[in-house]
Structures are given as C-alpha cells and as structure tokens.
C-alpha cells in the first residue's frame, strides 16, 4: 500500500468515524476509502465536514443525485459500494463552499483488487509493472499495460529505501503505444524517473520502489515494483556495426562501438557483446560472446575462440 495520510484539522473535509485508518488522502480533495468486498459487508462510516465557519444554512448534495442529503455542517454516510462513492458538495444558498471526491479500494479475501492494469504474465509471479535502465546513471523507464481507454488517471511515486528515503523525480505518465489484440485494444503507458543524487559507481544497498496509483472512474488501485538498477539494466545495441568480407577467405571482419548511452569509463563499466552468426545454408545459429575489452574489431572467428564471457547485447549477422 502507498502511504496513508489523514488530514485532521478544524477545516478537514473528511474525518474518520472509527479508529482504524480505512480512509486516506490521495491528493487535495480526493480520498480513498478501503473496503472489504463481500456480500453483506458493513462498509465504512465516513463523516464529511464542510469547510466553513458557518453553522447554519448548509446543504449537501452529490453528483449521483440532486436531492439534498443533509442540512448541517457535517454529513455522515455509510460507504458500501460504488454507488456511495463520488463527489460530495456542501453549499450555502447558491454558493459552493467545499467538496470532496471519494474513491473505493476493494479488498477481496484479503487481496487488493488489480483490475485496471493487465498482468504481463511473468512465469512465477503476477507482474504489472516493468522497468528498464540503459545505464547506471539512475535514470530508468517503467511501463504498464491496460485495456481501459477512458476515465483513467495515473500518478507515479518513487523512492530508494524506506527508513530514510532518497529522492526520486518521476515525470507524468504518458500513453506510448496502442495495439489491437483480438477484439480488444491494449494501451501501453510509460514514465521516466531519475534518482536525484545518483552515484553510478556506488554499490546499491537499498532497492528502488516505484508505486503507480491508478484510478478508473471511482475505483482506486495501486501497483508496486521494487528493484536494484543493476537488475534492470538493458543496454542499447552497439553502434557503428560494420561487416567486411576478407578477400580469398571465408572469414569476415566485424567491428562495432559501445552505444552512446552506456556509462563511462568503459574500462570500469564494461559490456559483454553476444555475436550470433548464421550462414545462408546453415540450419543452426551460432552464438558467441565477446567482452568489450577483448577487441574493438578483428577477425570474428579468432575472437570467438578466445572469449569466455557471458553474452550481453546481441549482434546479429547473416553471412552468405
């Protein structure tokens, strides 16, 4: 769960009627009510307090009905289902005094709902968020999928460590891709984040945590991913890849350079390059691994024989 905050002061719009923190502030004038979701569930009692020094002449309405719901400074409602959520407004005559929006966060059998985002079907666990980094600079990208197209809003928070969180700055999530899968459209959203005081050469001791708040209509959900930068590294492909056939030989000379986005110095942040070679008449592909410091260019056949490193970025070559 993301951090819960209850605003308690004389002008608060919402006060708890029970000692349990079952309601918290998502943003200004927007509150999340956490509900156990089962037939006959009692729901949560919520007390709304109008932000005004006035005591008399106050009326309450909601966006679900034009009927007057109450005529005092406070309004007590029982929130059991989505029909009870929505925007509540207090007035004095024709003057709007204050309002608040109630969202619902469902919990069924002790498990919070995950209806808004699409599970990306990792082998072991449900995975709703995926993140990648091109280098060790502290900059990373996260993305998620949904089939929901309207009345949808996302916000993202990130930090490193829980006892003494280090600052992270995340931009606004954007729709980055749409595609049709069967009868449905799938939407990919992404966000860019940067660690404020990143030290690329430092050993990571605390993971980064990313929390996505998702709101669809009056439903609230959140999704969390925790990782170290070292575990989400995915370098860009090598640049300036060149292939030269050697005269009177079945050998080729291959050269390439580190991608511009990779961390420097390369002597410290070394890469392992995977080379995959496929002849025109070969049935099987041959994959070899090359350390970045082993060669900047040279005979592919000789280089592959002396390399023992594990594969990284892949160079795909088709030899005739």
Task: Describe the secondary structure blueprint for this structure.
Blueprint: E1 14-16, E2 23-27, E3 30-36, E4 44-49, E5 58-62, E6 65-70, E7 74-79, E8 86-92, E9 95-108, E10 111-112, E11 130-132, E12 139-146, E13 152-160, E14 168-170, E15 174-181, E16 184-195, E17 208-216, E18 219-227, E19 239-245, E20 252-257, E21 272-279, E22 286-291, E23 297-299, H1 300-306, E24 314-319
Parallel strand pairs: 3-9, 21-24
Antiparallel strand pairs: 1-4, 2-3, 4-7, 5-6, 5-8, 8-9, 9-10, 11-12, 12-16, 13-17, 14-16, 15-16, 17-18, 19-20, 20-23, 21-22
Main attributes of the structure:
320 residues, mainly beta, Immunoglobulin-like, seven-stranded mixed sheet, 2% helix, Ig-like_dom, IL-12, disulfide bond
In short:
This protein is mainly beta and 320 residues long.
Characterise this structure.
It is a single chain. This protein is mainly β and 320 residues long. The protein has 3 domains: 23-108, Immunoglobulin-like; 118-231, Sandwich (Immunoglobulin-like); 239-277, Immunoglobulins (Immunoglobulin-like, Sandwich). The protein contains 1 helix and 24 strands. It has one helix spanning 300-306; strands spanning 14-16, 23-27, 30-36, 44-49, 58-62, 65-70, 74-79, 86-92, 95-108, 111-112, 130-132, 139-146, 152-160, 168-170, 174-181, 184-195, 208-216, 219-227, 239-245, 252-257, 272-279, 286-291, 297-299, 314-319. Strands 2, 3, 5, 6, 8, 9 and 10 form a 7-stranded mixed beta sheet that branches. Strand 2 (23-27) and strand 3 (30-36) form a beta hairpin. The longest helix has 7 residues, at 300-306. The protein is elongated, with a radius of gyration of 28 Å. Mean pLDDT is 83; it is low at 1-20 and 292-312. Residues 1-22 form the signal peptide. It is found in: Secreted. Belongs to the IL-12B family. Keywords: Cytokine, Disulfide bond, Glycoprotein, Immunoglobulin domain, Secreted, Signal. GO terms for molecular function: cytokine activity; cytokine receptor activity; interleukin-12 alpha subunit binding.
């Amino acid at each position: 769960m993301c951090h819960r905050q209850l605003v308690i002061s004389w002008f608060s719009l919402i006060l708890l009627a029970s000692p349990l923190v079952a309601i918290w502030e998502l943003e200004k004038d927007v509150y999340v009510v956490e509900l156990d979701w089962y037939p006959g569930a009692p729901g949560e009692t919520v007390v709304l307090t109008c932000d005004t020094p006035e005591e008399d002449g106050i009326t309450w309405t909601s966006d679900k009905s034009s009927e007057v719901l109450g005529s005092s400074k406070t309004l007590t409602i029982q929130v059991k289902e989505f029909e009870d959520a929505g925007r509540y407004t207090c007035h004095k005559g024709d003057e709007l005094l204050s309002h608040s929006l109630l969202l619902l966060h469902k919990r069924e059998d002790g498990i919070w709902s995950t209806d808004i985002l699409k599970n990306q079907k990792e082998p072991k666990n449900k995975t709703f968020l995926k993140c990648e980094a091109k280098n060790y600079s502290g900059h990373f990208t996260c993305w998620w999928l949904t089939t929901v197209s309207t009345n949808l809003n996302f916000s993202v928070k990130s930090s490193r460590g829980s006892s003494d969180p280090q600052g992270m700055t995340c931009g606004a999530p954007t729709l980055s891709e749409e595609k049709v899968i069967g009868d449905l459209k799938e939407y990919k959203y992404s966000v860019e984040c940067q660690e404020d005081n990143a030290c690329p050469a430092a050993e990571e001791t605390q993971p980064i945590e990313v929390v996505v708040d998702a709101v669809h209509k009056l439903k609230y959900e959140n999704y969390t991913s925790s990782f170290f930068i070292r575990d989400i590294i995915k370098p860009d492909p090598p640049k300036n890849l060149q292939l030269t056939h050697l005269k009177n030989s079945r050998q080729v000379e291959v050269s390439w350079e580190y991608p511009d986005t990779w961390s420097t110095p390369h002597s410290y942040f070394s890469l392992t390059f995977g080379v995959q070679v496929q002849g025109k008449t070969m049935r099987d592909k041959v994959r070899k691994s090359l350390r970045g410091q082993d060669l900047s260019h040279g005979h592919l056949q000789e280089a592959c024989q002396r390399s023992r490193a594990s594969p990284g970025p892949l160079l795909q070559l088709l030899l005739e």
